[in-house]
Amino acid sequence: MTKSSRSWTAAITGVALVALALSGCSGAGGSASSGKIDAAAKSAAQKVVATALKEPVTRKLTLLTKKPATGKNVVMLSCPLAACKKVEAPIIDASKLLGWNARVLVYDFTPESYISTFESALQLKPDFIYYIANLPDSIITEQLKAAKAAGIVVLSSASGPSTKLGADELVRGSITAGADRTRVSKLQAATVINDADSLDGITYLYDPAGETYKLGFDVFSDEIKKAGGTVDGLEINQSDIGTTLPGKVASYLQVHPNTKYFVVPHDAFLPGIIEAIQGAGLPLPKIVGFDPQPESQAPIKAGTEWESIKYDGIRANWDIVDMMARISVGDPVTETQPAGLLMIANKKNLSKIPDVFPGVPSDFAKAWLVN
Questions:
Q1: Does residue 7 register a pLDDT over 70?
Q2: What is the pTM of this model?
């Protein structure tokens, strides 16, 4: 079975994806395994899921050695998705608490826009640039070098494992990066292994142009493989989210009606997909997501989105400004990838899960000596 591929400059068209579905060549096909679940993997998954259904404990923040100076400038590079819009306010609010100014610039999902938006950020000569890495960091290498040369501290969200982090690197720190993506994908795999009678009929949708999305697919597939199953990878272009993507997913499922679990790397991929599947009269697979968005609430409550890994993106973005605050006063940044707070959300427990786990903004105000 041949896996489809494309460079980051290519977009999968509707015709191409339908052809891909009709050929059955959507990734690491499921014919190589009987799907029988390894007993030890099943037992381990049960324990992981039991823990992840409990609210996580927030980590303690170390007090700064001194209060940060006011007047710093932050530029955030965001994207058009609702998931990106959701985390713009935390950056603005956290910066404001420090007496800093934050500005948001938005790029679209093309390399040209990614580069030009970063260039615009450089021209503003801020103290910090924070960007959401929906495209490979290799596209903006020259801009990252320019920021380093200008003394601008750069932090990111969702940088891939190839991006080195640290004081001497081009990117100082990152959230929702390789370490968190690995944790999320392992937890998504555990939910499937815990629930399934056999590990066949599993599809993972992702955009290979996003390095952390590709990592997520690889980690998830490896976990399922170790447990005795296989995963079909459905490659898409995230620029199709909410437009042509739902129809493409329905076309795929028409050719793969035995799909039992449909996994996405982020709930932002889901708008219109459930409706398209139901509108085509197809059986709805158990959908496993990540980072429930406001528009995810209704499908999770209805059970049409079976489970999603709750991620406190609000707190995570306060963590980004926490790194900025520590850097601004010369304090060490001990975690270049602060671990995000994860919890399984489903129909049964959604109403009990807070949108933001405790500690925002109080923990940060205390740590920054501004309360």
A1: no
A2: 0.87
